[in-house]
Amino acid sequence: MAKPIVINWNKLSDEGLQGHLAKGVSAAYAAFIDGQLIVAGGANFPDKLGFEGGAKAFYDEILWYNPANNSWKIIGRLPVPSAYGISIPIPHGALWIGGNGSTELLTSCYKVSLRYNRGHTPETTAMETSAKMDANNAVKANTVMELNETMGTTATVELTP
């Protein structure tokens, strides 16, 4: 007989979330960076549900979860409100790739890390990619992308389903 898997979890507080963010968002970029939970962007229907005719809103806030007091803090902003992108962990950071804005698929890619000497301030480095992708189409097939960092270095990321 198989041994059952036990999963323990805790509900995180919405303390520190402002306005419509307190309702929760879907499709946010999320990463553990050096053991810190960082969540950015996302979308929701703030006024009424989509099937009731509600309009979808996209967000640009970058949030840090503080486990010491079970609260969230806005520590930065994305260049544009967006959701449905890809988050790939890398040493001491993450790559946030593509996604959707309110009107288009995005080709953006950001290398994200934290600056601890400035109170968990996110540092984002823009990278270039010609790929348009979101969470739905990026994992359909093996994809190799070259990401050209603004300083001229190149990283290759292989996405596999």
How would you summarize what this structure contains?
This protein is mainly β and 161 residues long.
Q: How would you describe this structure to a colleague?
A:
This protein is mainly β. It has one domain (19-159): Neuraminidase (6 Propeller). It is built from no helices and twelve strands. The protein has strands at 29-33, 36-40, 43-44, 57-58, 61-66, 71-77, 86-90, 93-97, 109-115, 121-128, 143-149, 154-159. Strands 7-8-9-10-11-12 form a six-stranded antiparallel β-sheet, with no helix packed on it. Strands 1-2-5-6 form a four-stranded antiparallel β-sheet, with no helix packed on it. A hairpin with a 5-residue loop joins strand 9 and strand 10 (121-128). It is globular and about 45 Å long. The protein starts with 28 loop residues before the first strand and ends with a strand. The relative contact order is 0.16. The model is unreliable at 138-156 (pLDDT under 50).
Mind telling me which CATH architecture this is?
Answer: 6 Propeller
Q: What kind of oligomer do you see?
A: single chain
Could you tell me the CATH topology label: Neuraminidase
| Residue fraction in strands | 35-45%
Overall structural domain count:
1
How would you state the average pLDDT, rounded?
80
- In spatial order, strands of the major sheet run 7-8-9-10-11-12
Task: Tell me the structural class.
Answer: mainly beta
Largest sheet: 6 strands, antiparallel
Question: Which superfamily, in CATH terms, is the homologous superfamily?
Answer: Kelch-type beta propeller
